[in-house]
């Protein structure tokens, strides 16, 4: 089977209809036992140290794993991707561009996806057939989400992991579906573990995956993972076609569109506080100004760089933030 890498979530239904095995280069990078090697490959190749670690990791993962075809999202994601794909081309990688229209106009989204389908020589009916097939898997991920924020049985990390994996379905739809079915049964069989503090994680997925276990030491849990949940397309059954599905997807569009869904989830999930994660050297850090101005719950911005574990300073800030929320809740009583 042909293998194709992606720099972020794209209309995967098109790629699957075209017969590809899809690999999210982000997942390939961050799940590696020696993830730092990928960053080193990029820096030895000329990538500056003052550049997002994700971009360098994606580059290194692509070359090291001999991914010869890549879809690069040139609008609606990291602005550095435009330069990344040029360097990938220089290294012999065949690159296909995809863009999420800034306007989020349904006609422009439709045109962009139709161009994508033409690029891979697939028909709309084939794409819709794949989209229908993926609904069962998306439903399983949504069930695990509910086991997290409603049933208090799934951990924040499990919710993060099984949502983010839907960007490429771990490269094998059937194996991934079976894994989700088994995991759902195992989680559902647990006793509920209610935490005092309910947190939201918003922003790009973290380099520091240990953040989930860390907050649970302080009687807190993440019960909402914003971008990871969007990768899983939780509203898949509220749309009529592939065009509406990707128009309804919040991640690639402006922060105000994202905030509409974030506010809704904060209310529904009874969120006490928000952790806004940003990556070093990323423009999204500026959005923290808007987020803090718009949300009615406490917000803590933390920043990650190359290290995949929380540093001491960030741990202290998280602990103090959780303590503050706990004190506020006691005062309200």
Automatic annotation (TrEMBL):
One GO molecular-function entry: iron-sulfur cluster binding
Pfam families, per database record: HGD-D
Coiled-coil regions, chain positions: 113-147
Highest taxon above the source species: Bacteria
Keywords: Coiled coil, Iron, Iron-sulfur, Metal-binding
Cofactor(s) the record lists: [4Fe-4S] cluster
Cited InterPro entries: FldB/FldC_alpha/beta (IPR010327)
PANTHER family referenced in this protein's UniProt entry, alphabetically: 2-HYDROXYACYL-COA DEHYDRATASE, 2-HYDROXYGLUTARYL-COA DEHYDRATASE, D-COMPONENT-RELATED
Family to which this protein belongs: Belongs to the FldB/FldC dehydratase alpha/beta subunit family.
Protein's UniProt name: 2-hydroxyglutaryl-CoA dehydratase
Species per Swiss-Prot/TrEMBL record: Fervidicella metallireducens AeB
